[in-house]
Each structure stands twice: as structure tokens, then as C-alpha cells.
Amino acid sequence: MPTNELVLKREQAHFDDAWLAREATRATLSDAGSASGGPRKVAAAVKNAADERLQRLGGSDDAVAFGRVDVGDDVLYIGNHAITNDDFDLLVVNWQAPAARPYFEATFANPLGATLRRTFQCERNTIQGFDDVVFEDLARRVAQLDASAEEVWGINDALLSDLEAGRSGEMREIVQTIHHAQYALIRSEMDQLLVIQGGPGTGKTAVALHRVSWLLYNHAPDLLPQDVMVVGPSDTFTRYIRSVLPGLGDDNVVYRDLRSLGPQKSTGRNEGTSIRRLKGELRMASLLHTALWQRVRVPDRMKTLQVGSGFSAVSFSREEIEAELPNHVGKGSYTVGRASFRNFLQREVEARNPRGPGATAPVLDAAVERVWPSLSAVAFLRDLFGSRDRLLAAAGDRFTGTEIGRLFRQASDKVADEQWSDVDVALLDEAEELLNGRPSARYRHIVVDEAQDLSPMQLRSIRRRSESGSMTVVGDLAQSTGPWARESWDDITTILASDLPAQLEQLELGYRVPRQVYEFAAQLLPYIAPGLKPPTVVRDGPADPELVEVDEFDVAGPALAAARSHAGSGRFVGLICPDRHRRRLEEELVAHDVKWANVGSGNLDSSINVARPSESKGLEFDAVVVVDPEAIVGESDWGLRHLYVALTRTTKYLTVLHTGVALPLPTEQASDALIELAEVRGLEQAALFDAPPPARVTERTPRDPSAESSRPNARAASRTGSTSTSSLNVVIAKRAAEALAADLREAVAPHLWEAVISELREELGLGDS
Ligand SMILES: Nc1ncnc2c1ncn2[C@@H]1O[C@H](COP(=O)(O)OP(=O)(O)OP(=O)(O)O)[C@@H](O)[C@H]1O
């Protein structure tokens, strides 16, 4: 048996050979452009090809390999990029190659012929150490019930030490330590809708991005980086993840965030939950469709449509135009129809006045415009939302008067001045398709991250950019918040569905959050996602959560002190603060001249990063300070889920500053109500704002019976839709009353409360009864 030292020496010799071979290739490729000679075009093409190949070599400081797997007599070194020598011997296999499979997939239960898996720790190309998994040895040890994390879960020391490493504002690649369960998802068929559910820190984002790299390698040259789009919830998030793929040698993948997925970006218009919910509903698609085609009409007072003037003018009677329009309506996009109608007019003018000069383009356009106005998506939507009449005419009986009232808004004087909210973007995108057809930029594969929060209209926006429906969609229902918070993936898969198969998979190991922290956070799980299994945490953290009680009127000071203390130890810190304390916290930061990054404005680069709970989704830090959990819970309908998100952002340390209760679990009564709410939310979310029509209640999909049994305080199994709805109304009423009461307490002196309530009744038209 060779000593460790000898093994290391041999391995280093292989690394050195591979390094020389790689650098020789680099030198050849670098010279390729100038050496190729011949016409300039040819030389340029050769140089481009060489540059592309160079990109896939990695840097000269990078270690040539990160692992090795022995299968029978074959010894394979695995690295980010393949390396061959002059004799075409394969010195290193790239991780995406099928040959590398046993390195990732060999487990104790199924070693796939592998006898050894070795993981290297390197400084540049110098091996510092290595960890071995000897599969036969494992079998023996497991038989002796001496199982380690490696045997039980396939978690090796390299992975654990990777998880311990400090974090920054950029996500990193995890190629060396991809877990076999993750690898199976990474390499699964491209032609499917793959939905991956997993708890916080189970590696969903990492898997989705590494899957892109794997697909690009294995489907080249049919699949190019520019054929792949990655959609994230916000600019901050896409910035956070966008270094992973270039790190794997895959540049030019397209990144978009939902606020810009349309012909016009969000300009930050603020809208309440009910309107955001409404604008995300599928009904909006038909409203826009009807409203747009209603713009094609013969104006009420128009008797004839005259094309041109003077002796060459040609007149069309109202009846004639009315009879003609249907020939052009609805047969393609609005713009195509308009062009077809314009052609008709042109032909008719020439036919009816053969000796005339024909209609010039401006003359024709002016005539068409009267009947079939040319529109942009922004102009159309501004006109629609700015007119109650237009809204009513398009809505038919699909929207209530209250809903029309919600959609209506005062239009800006100029189209360019109109302000657009995040949820308007998907409507503008829908309008754009109606106007001009599907976007020409379509993708062969789309990754959607944090998909659990998307509205149906946003999902349609994504779907229309997909060539075939091939997608990887990742998220966590327990972290689903916002107006489209949901309890199941059903509607998402339905809207994204195509002819391709759809598959729902789970990731079950929690890598990010250490055990002590997750055990604390997981107490929320029965209330926020009773049907979901908590992830199995793979490691212990360095410390228990630090729960610190602070004075409710002085939260900002201690919050800053806690963040500074973590930062002082060189940690990348997330300071997650509810709105209630945000202003004070910012004042405190300024007063102490502390450098900090505002996560909400897309920054994530300082050692102290301040985020609202909702903004912290998908991110991670070495240490997290969660400020006032009770306020977090109280500030939104999804407060418990926001708290769960906030508590699970840390890779190591958690400090919770509370004003009495560190983990505000609902009381038994309230938890019953929450469970009730959770059951109907997602299927009948509209009921939160309007009494739903009975038909929608009966449309509910059956609940997962296994989920029912695991609910705390689960009540008698069968509840009819109407019982749920009426209970839900009680819940809604109670929560609304609590929120109003809290506002009242804060804003108005107690002796005025009666008077305010009576004014409120008046305001709502409830009279004195
Ligand atoms: N196999 C692995 N090897 C090393 N690190 C890993 C592995 N899998 C996941 N990680 C790390 O765990 C952390 C969490 O991963 P990721 O952000 O992808 O999780 P997530 O499921 O998307 O989390 P969330 O739901 O909270 O957004 C990241 O730091 C990631 O690099």
C-alpha cells in the first residue's frame, strides 16, 4: 500500500503533465489566428474558433482536475475542462462528459463499477490534500454499522468544507462536489418540463445552473448558450447567480428578470396586493384580447371612409367596411391584420379608380388609422386602464364592478410618462404578443428560479419565449409569498405545459443552513407548508442561533451592533429588517458612517447587506441578523413564510433580535385559521379580496391526502368548498380587522377611535345600521 506522500507525489506528477499539455494547447490556440494565414476572412474564422476553444480551457492558474474515479482498470481524472496531450491521450475528462458519470453517481448502494473516488484540494495546480472514498471499504463499514455522512447520504468532506467556505455577493460553482441526487437532475433529459421542489439551501439554483452547463456540453452544437434563458425574480438575484455559468466556461446565456420580461420594464409603480393578484390572473389575457380587438371598429358617427381627397378620392360605405373588417380580424396578430386591411384598401382604391394616381402611403395610413389604429403595447394598455368605458366593454361578465374599479387608473398625459408596476410588465408582454405575434427571441431551454411566486400571466410570458416547452423550473412552496403564494405546483405545470412530458422532482438534502439554525426555523414549517417534508440537514453549524431580546423602541441600534460584530469577524452579513424599523436602521447606519449595501436596489457587495425579508429570497450570507420576527410576521399576509425565508439565509451564524418572542408561532386558534387559509390559498386566492363565484369553489383540485394527515391540528378530513370559503371569510375579516386596528392604534389617539369607526362606516356607505 503506497503511503499518502507517495500517492500525492504520483498524483502531482499527473497534474503537472496535464498542466503542460493544457498550456501547450493554449499556446497553439493563441497563435492560431495569426498563424492561419490565407485570406483575412479565413484567418478571422480560425481565430474565432480558437478563441472559443480557449475559453473552454479554463485559466492557466486553475487546477487541471478536481477529482478522480477508478472504474475497473480505468483511472479517470475529472476537471472543469477536458485536457488531451499531443498523442490524443485524455489526461482529464470534463465533468459534463458521460464518462465522468461514475464520479458523481457512484454510491455505496450502487457503485457503478467504481472502486475509488478521490477528491483533491488544490492551490492553483498544486495538490494540498485529497479525500478518498473506497467503495468496497464503505460496504464493509456500513455492514459494521459504522456509517458516516458519506455512507448515509453521499456527503463527503470536500462538500462539507466547501459549505464552510465564506460567501460573497456572487454564487459559486459546485462542480467538484455535486451530489448524486443533484447530478441525476442535472443530467436528466432536456426535452421535458422539469420542476424541482426543494427546501431552503437544497441546491435548487445550483442544480438549475449546472444543468444548463451540462446541457450545453451534451447538446452542442445544436444548443448554444444564446439558446438558453435564465429567469429570476429580480435584478439583484440575477446578478447574484450570473457568475456561475461563465465560471463553468459558458458565457452568453441570456439572463432576464421578471421586471423586464416584456416590451417595457417596470418603472416601479406601487400597487396593492389585490390589484397585483387580479392583474396576474389568466382572465386578464382574455380581457386584453377582447379590448384590443375592440379597437378595430367603424366609429359611431362615420358614414363613409374616404381614402384621399379631391378627384382621386375613393369612398367606402360604413356597411362595406363593417362587412370587410372580419376578413382581417383575428387571423394573425393585430399588426398583421392591420396590414392586410390596408392592402385591401389599396387594392380597392386602384380598382375603383383605375386611372387615378392610387393612394399614397400617408393617405392610406390616415384612412386605416380611423378604423384600425396603430398601437404599441404601452399605448394600448394606458388607453385601456385609463378608461372605465373601455374596461367595462372588454370585461363582459368576467369581471365585477369592483375589479374594473381596481384596474382603472388615471392615464398620464403622455404615453412615455405612464408608470408601470412589476405586474404590468406581464400584461404589456401579453399585449405585445397580441399586437405583433410571439417574440422572435425564443429559447430552446429556459430556467425559471423562485418560480413558486409567479402569477399565471408571468408564467405565460415565460412560456411564450420557449420554443418547445423544455424548461427547468425550481422553487420551494414553503417560501411562496406575494399575491400568488401557492400550496401546489399544479397550476404552474399546467400553464407551462407543452407536448413534452412534465416531471416533478424533489431535492431533500439541505446544504446551506446548519442544523441548529434549521431546527429553529423548521418550527414554522407545520404552519406555512404542512404537507412538505423538511430537508435533511447535512451538517452542524458553529453555533446555536443567538436570540437576543431588545427594547421594542430601540431595535435599530442593537441590530447594527450585531451586524457590525459579525462583519468585524470578516463575515459576509445579511441584515434582514422589516419595514417598521427600516428608516431607523438606515439613520443608524448613516450616523455610524457604516458602509452597507441596499439589496433592494440591486447591490450585494458590501460586508453588511440590508434587505427586506422578501428581498432576501434566494440569497445567502455567512451570518444573518434577523430583526424583530414579530414585525416581519405582522407586515404581510405571508409573514410566517417571510420569516422562514429570512431565518434560512445563513450558512453559519444567525442572530435574532426580538422584542419578546423570538419565533412568533401562531396560537392554536390562529394556527387553525392559517391552516384553513393555506388550504384554500392558491386555489381560491381571489376569495381573499372578493367573494368568489360558486363555480370557482367547485373547481378546486383535490388535496393531497398525505399532506392532510401530517397537518398539526388537522381537522376532520372532508371540508366542502363552501365551508372553506365561509371559514376563509372569517379569517380574512379577522386579519383585516387586526391590521386596521393596529393602524388605528398607531395613528390615532384612543379617544378618537369611535369617531373614526363611525366615519369609516360613512365612507364605506354602510350607514348607521
Ligand atoms: N453539492 C454541493 N456542493 C457544494 N455546495 C453546494 C452543493 N449543493 C448546494 N450547495 C451550496 O448550498 C447553497 C445553497 O444552494 P442554492 O442557493 O442553490 O439552494 P436553493 O435550494 O436554491 O436555496 P433557496 O431555496 O434558499 O434559494 C449554495 O451555497 C450552494 O453553493
UniProtKB/TrEMBL annotation:
A GO MF term: DNA binding
Feature: compositional bias, Basic and acidic residues: 697-706
Record-linked InterPro entries: DNA_helicase_UvrD/REP, P-loop_NTPase, UvrD-like_ATP-bd, UvrD-like_helicase_C
Keyword Nucleotide-binding in record: yes
GO biological process, one term: recombinational repair
UvrD-like helicase ATP-binding domain segment(s): 177-514
Protein name, as recorded: UvrD-like helicase ATP-binding domain-containing protein
Protein species of origin: Knoellia sinensis KCTC 19936
